[in-house]
């Protein structure tokens, strides 16, 4: 499936009676890279979870390739081309690396697993290890690779760099950049490592209490010291 655009219109969602995402509208053109930034608790994870169909939606549309999937359950959204790699790294601990990858293949032939190994050679070395035996970085690679094997047209990545050593972060960001450059995927990245996210993205939204407080090009955000300090709580970016 080629990359598809994602268009979000007046989206509101939350948990039980509580609204967490408020009236959000933005669009991500096919093949582009959107970074979602914001301080802790501002709604970044909830936004991705809402797109994936895992929160309570109060209103609004989510168009994937022009089709509104907002009322569809998670599984139908995945079939429509939405890939979601949650912050929790949903690796099956009692399955081997290879078995975890096979789960992601959907109806593709088993040989497609090699694509995951080409992207993350470390997974090939560990292919007979159990999910529970992997390091944090390897689990992140596995979780990401499994999603990618399903050939999503839009990929949602929630804090993939969390807790990882700088060298692994670089490896992962390089893999994401390659995916984005292939033109096969539209990517939405939630990340606390602001500089990595800005280096990767071609557009940025910054959330504040469930709303979009700033949006624009990464270079413009880096130059807007007041916004960076107010919305991200850091003194400055290089
Ligand atoms: N399952 C849940 N049930 C109820 N409230 C929740 C749930 N998950 C998150 N929230 C609330 O929603 C708000 C947004 O949280 P969310 O995790 O989306 O923020 P975030 O920007 O991803 O934060 P972080 O950077 O800390 O991961 C917070 O007030 C949080 O307490």
Summarize the structure in words:
The protein is of the alpha/beta class and 238 residues long. It has a single domain (6-232), classed as P-loop containing nucleotide triphosphate hydrolases (Rossmann fold), CATH 3.40.50. Helices cover 35% and strands 26% of the residues. The protein is built from ten helices and ten strands. It has helices at 44-51, 74-79, 97-103, 113-119, 121-125, 136-149, 166-181, 194-200, 218-223, 225-232, and strands at residues 6-15, 18-28, 33-37, 56-64, 67-68, 82-85, 154-158, 186-190, 203-208, 211-216. A six-stranded mixed β-sheet has the order 6-7-8-3-9-10, sandwiched between helices. A four-stranded antiparallel β-sheet has the order 2-1-4-5, covered by helices on one side. A hairpin with a 2-residue loop joins β1 and β2 (18-28). α3 runs parallel beside α6 and α4 crosses α6. The longest helix is centred in the last third of the chain and has 16 residues, at 166-181. It starts with 5 loop residues before the first strand and ends in a 6-residue tail after the last helix. The model has no long low-confidence stretch (mean pLDDT 93). Bound molecules: adenosine-5'-triphosphate. Adenosine-5'-triphosphate (ATP) is lined by residues 15, 18, 20, 38, 40-46. Adenosine-5'-triphosphate is lined by residues 15, 18, 20, 38, 40-46.
Along the chain, the helix and strand elements come as EEEHEEHEHHHHEHEHEEHH
Query: What is the CATH architecture assignment?
Result: 3-Layer(aba) Sandwich
User: What's the rounded overall pLDDT mean?
Assistant: 93
- CATH H-tier superfamily: P-loop containing nucleotide triphosphate hydrolases
How many helices in DSSP terms? 10
Low-confidence stretches: none
Shape: globular
State the end-to-end distance.
37 Å
Count of domain modules: 1
Q: Approximately how much helix is present in the residues?
A: 25-40%
According to DSSP, the number of beta strands is 10
**Level-1 CATH class name:** Alpha Beta
Strand residues, percent: 25-35%
CATH topology: Rossmann fold
Secondary-structure-derived class? alpha/beta
Largest sheet: 6 strands, mixed
The radius of gyration over CA amounts to 17 Å
Question: What hetero molecules are bound to the protein chains?
Answer: adenosine-5'-triphosphate
Q: Give the neighbour order of strands across the main sheet.
A: 6-7-8-3-9-10
């Amino acid at each position: 499936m080629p990359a598809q655009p994602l268009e979000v219109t007046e989206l509101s969602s939350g948990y039980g009676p509580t609204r967490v995402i408020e009236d959000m509208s933005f669009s991500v053109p096919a093949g582009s890279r959107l970074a979602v930034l914001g301080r802790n608790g501002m709604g970044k994870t909830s936004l991705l979870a809402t797109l994936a169909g895992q929160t309570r939606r109060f209103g609004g549309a989510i168009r994937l390739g022009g089709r509104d999937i907002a009322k569809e359950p998670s599984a139908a959204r995945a079939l429509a081309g939405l890939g979601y790699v949650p912050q929790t790294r949903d690796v099956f601990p009692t399955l081997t690396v290879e078995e975890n990858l096979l789960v992601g293949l959907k109806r593709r032939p088993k040989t497609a697993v090699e694509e995951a190994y080409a992207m993350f050679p470390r997974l090939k070395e560990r292919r007979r290890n159990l999910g529970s035996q992997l390091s944090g970085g390897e689990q992140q690679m596995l979780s990401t690779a499994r999603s990618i094997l399903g050939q999503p047209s839009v990929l949602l990545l929630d804090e993939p760099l969390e807790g990882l050593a700088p060298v692994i972060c670089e490896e992962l960001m390089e893999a994401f950049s390659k995916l984005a450059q292939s033109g096969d995927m539209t990517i939405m990245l939630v990340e606390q490592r602001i500089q990595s996210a800005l280096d990767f993205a071609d557009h940025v939204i910054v959330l504040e209490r469930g709303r979009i407080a700033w949006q624009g090009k990464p270079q413009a955000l880096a130059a807007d010291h007041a916004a960076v300090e107010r919305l991200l709580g850091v003194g400055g970016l290089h």
